Amino acid sequence: MIYSSSIIKEGQLRRSEYNNMLFDNIKIIGNYGLYYAFYKCTGITGSVSFPKLTSIGEYGLESAFRGCTGITGSVSFPKLTSIGDQGLYHAFNGCTDLTGSISFPELTSIDYLGLAGAFYGCTGITSVSFPKLTSMDYEGLASVFNGCTGITSVSFPKLTSISDQGLFCAFQGCTDLTGSISFPELTSIDYGGLNGAFQGCTGITSVSFPKLTSIGNYGLQAFEGCTGITEIHFRADAQSTVEAANWYENKFGASNATIYFDL
Q: Rounded distance, CA 30 to CA 57, Å?
């Protein structure tokens, strides 16, 4: 099924079954666009693609494909640059046969609760990348990949700030996530940011925050149960800030880690 209109608004496409979802020329999804549109439509098969979509309004695509267990391919948003409040909220929650890599190559910002729970429990996802994402609003990306046990790598190369409770429980229980985790451009974490983000990810071995200089109250309790982490790295001139953080004494949850302050 192919859709060719340039804008989808509230109330459109509230139908029960579709196959091979290609939204060919959709450039904008307005407020409440595709809200619960295909909820639990288990007959949907193949991949889902929005090749020209650039922006999603408030509540756009919320729970749109939630429980669509027949989706067996990947999902694609190659041109998406912005997500409004609760955009893509739980959009693909429970799509357990969704597979492959998830990437938002042009996405730069996420508003309140954007992408929260979007891929919760999608155990077939193998890697995650946000190459241009720089910031998020309150609870952005919260629980976005919680329980995605197939993920082996994540990448946030341009992320500079994490808002209140941003990335909260984002990768909790991603037990195949292994090796080093780095936030190379991250400078600030607000209240509760990253809390529970990697809880139970026993395959992670080291973590690096080379530019982090600010940690808000109760931020960075990210690594509870990450028994494989042996090193957490910060910049040398951030030592007083890091040592003043609420969770410093318990090593931000990584009980086996040594904290280093690098020159």
A: 5
Check residue 21 and give its pLDDT: 87
Q: How far is CA 138 from CA 73, 107, 111, in A?
A: 31, 17, 7
Kindly state the DSSP code that residue 49 receives in the 8-state scheme. Answer: E
Q: Dump the DSSP string for 138-151.
A: TTTTTTTTTT-TT-
Q: Report yes or no: 98 and 69 within 8 Å, Cβ to Cβ.
A: no
What residue type is assigned to position 21 of the chain? M
Find the Cα–Cα–Cα–Cα dihedral 208, 211, 217, 219, rounded to 10°.
-30
Give the β-pairing of 135-136 and 161-162.
Answer: unpaired
Burial of 248 (0-12, 13-18, 19+ CB in 10 A): middle
Token output for 179 = 């090796």
Single-letter code of the amino acid located at 246: N
Cβ–Cβ < 8 Å for 170, 147: no
Token pair for 163: 């808002």
Q: Are residues 206 and 229 in contact, defined by beta-carbon separation less than 8 angstroms?
A: yes
pLDDT, tens only, 62-105? 999 999 999 988 899 999 999 999 999 999 999 999 999 999 99
